[in-house]
Prior knowledge:
Chain A is an alpha/beta fold and 393 residues long. In chain A, 69% of the residues lie in helices and 9% in strands. Chain A folds into 2 domains: 99 residues, Transcription Regulator spoIIAA; 239 residues, no CATH class. Chain B is globular. Chain A: Keywords: Membrane, Transmembrane, Transmembrane helix.
Amino acid sequence: MLNDAPLQASRxxxxxxxxxxxxxxxxxxxxxxxxxxxxxxxxxxxxHDVRALELRGDVRKMTLDISGIQRIxxxxxxxxxxLIAANAARGVETTVVGESEAAGILLHAVAEATRGxxxxxxxxxxxxxxxxxxxxxxxxYAGRDDFIAGMYILGSTIRGAQMKLGRxxxxxxxxxxxxxxxMGVGAIPVVLLMSAIVGAIVAQQGAFxxxxxxxxxxxxxxxxxxxxxxLGVLLTAIMIAGRSGSAxxxxxxxxxxxxxxxxxxxxxxxxxxxxxFPRLVALVIALPCLTIAANFAAIGGAIAVSWxxxxxxxxxxxxxxxxxxxVSTIFAGLIKAPFMALIIGIIGSVEGMKVxxxxxxxxxxxxxxVVKSIFVVIIVDGLFAMFYAAIDF
Amino acid sequence: xxxxxxTIIEDAxxxxxxxxxxxxxxxxTVAFGDKVVLDKLSLDIYRGEILGFVGASGAGKSVLxxxxxxxxxxxxxxxxLFGIDVDKANELDRQRLDMRLGxxxxxxxxxxxxxxxxxxxxxxxxxxxxxxxLMDELALLKIELVGLPxxxxxxxxxxxxxxxxxxxxxxxxxxxxxxxxxxxxxxxxLDPIGAADFDELVAKLRDTMGLTVYMVTHDLDSLxxxxxxxxxxxxxxxxxxxTVKDMLASEEPWVKSYFRGKRARQLDLAARN
Lengths: 393, 273
C-alpha cells in the first residue's frame, strides 16, 4: 500500500479538532454532545455516528449540546439539522443547547433551505427484462424518428432552398461550389491512394490464387468487375462518410448548440435550405466523380501489380479488360454513388440537428453519424447487389 | 496521487484577528504585448468583508480577477492569498489554496456534460473522501442553499435558465465551504427579486462562515446593500476604495457619474419615496 503512511497520519489529526459525538443515556432520554470541528473536510468522520442516532428507536427525548463545536460550516450544520429533522419525523423531542450565534444562524439557514421538502424518490429500477424491452422500444422509436427526420430533410431539399415571400428558389451556387471543393476536391488524394492500394492488393491476391489453375490472366476480369461494380464506389462512400459526414454533423451540430440554427429560422430562412441543401447537392455531385477517380486508381494499381508480379503487360491487361467488362458494369457501380451520397448527407444532417446543448452530445452525434452512414451505405450496397441479381444486370 | 486526498484534510487555520488580510495584491502589473492593462495595482481584502469591485467595461476587472486566480500571467508584483505568495507556493500549498477559494465565473462555466448535482460534486470528489450518500446530501443542500428547486439537481446545464445557471455555479463555488469566493457579475441576468435574494444569501454566508467575498459587479443595489467596501478600478489601478459614503463623496469624475449619475439618483429617489 503506497498510501498507508499518509492515511494513518490523516486519521489521527490533533485530537481537539477532530469532530466527535458523545452519547450519554439520561434518565429521560439521550444527552448527545458534539465537539470538534464540524467542517466539510471532516464531517465524514461523524456521519456514521449521526446516522446511527437518527435510527435509534428507543428514545423519546434528545438533548443536543453543540457548545463543544469549535467550527461549523454548512456541511456540519447539515448533519445537525438532518438529525433534528429525523427526530421531528419520528416524534422525538429535541432540544438544542449551547449554540453559538454563528452556529444558530447557520442552522437556521440550512433548516430553511431544506425543511418541508421530501427527499427525491430514487428512480425505480425495473428488472432486466423490462429494461431490455425498454431499450428495444426506444431503439425502434428512435429509428422511426430518424427515418422521418431524414425524409423531412430529403423532402425539403428536393423542394429546394425556399425563400419566403415567393422569391422563388434561391440556389446558392457559390455555397455548393465551395462544398464540392471541400468535400470532393479535398478528398481526391486520399481516395486515389486508398483505391490504388486496394486495387493492387486484390490483383495480387487474385493472381496468386489463379496461378494454380494457370488462369492468371483472369485476374483482369476479377479486378475489373469487382472494382467497377462494388469496391470503387463502396470504399469511396465509406471514406466520404468518415471524412465529410462527420464534418456535416459537427458543423450543423455546433451551430445548433449556439442557437445559430434558431437564428436562421427567425430571420426567415429555412435552415435545411441554407445548411443542408448545398452540402447534399455537393455530395451528390462529388461522390460519383470521386468514384470515377477511384475506379481509375484501383485499375491503375491492379495494372501495376499484374505487370510486376504476374508479368501481364499493360496492353494485354487492357485488351482483356475490354473483353470482360462493358459499359453496364461501369454504370452498375456508378448508379449507386448518388444514393450513397444522399444517405451520407441526410444521416449527417439528421444527427447534426439532434445535437443538444452539451459538448458531449456533439461528440456522441458525430460518432453515431459516421457509424450509421457507413452501416447504411453497406446495407444499401447489398440491396443493390440483390436487385441487380434479380434483374440480371 | 492516492495520498493527496488525505494530506490536505486539516482545516484552514483560524483567523487571528479582526483585520486579517486574506488577499493582498502588491504592485501587480499585467500587460498583453505592449498594452499595459494593470499598472502597479495594489489591493487588500480583509477576512469577512464583502468587497465590491467596479470599473468601466474594459478597465481590466476580469483581468485582475483572472490574474489573482492564476489564469493570467503578470509581469510584476506579488499576490498573497492567506499570507502565502501564490507564485512561490509549492504544489501542496497551491492545492490547499485552491480548496479555500470558490469562483463563480460570469457565464457559470458549468460542465455541460454533467448534471447540476454532479457539477457541485466535482470539487468534493477531487479533494474530499466522502461517502456517496453524504456527498449527495451535501450537494443537494448546496443546491437548495442557493435557492434552486430540488428537481434542478438532476438537470443538465443546457436545461437551465440563465439565472438558474448562476445559482448552480454558485453552488459549485461553495461546494467545499471556501474561505473566499470570487463572484464575477453574480447578479447580472437575475431578476431584481432574485438578485436581492442572492445578495442576502451572500451576506448570510458571510455572517455564518466568515466567508470573504470579492464581487465584481455593476449592480448598484448590490453595492449599496451588501458591500462593506467598494474598490473602483480606473487608469490601470485602484482609483478609490472605501465605503459607499466615500464613493458618494469622491470627486473622481468616473466615480461621481457612477454613484451620483442618473440611475443612482433614481434608485435613491425610489428608496426615499
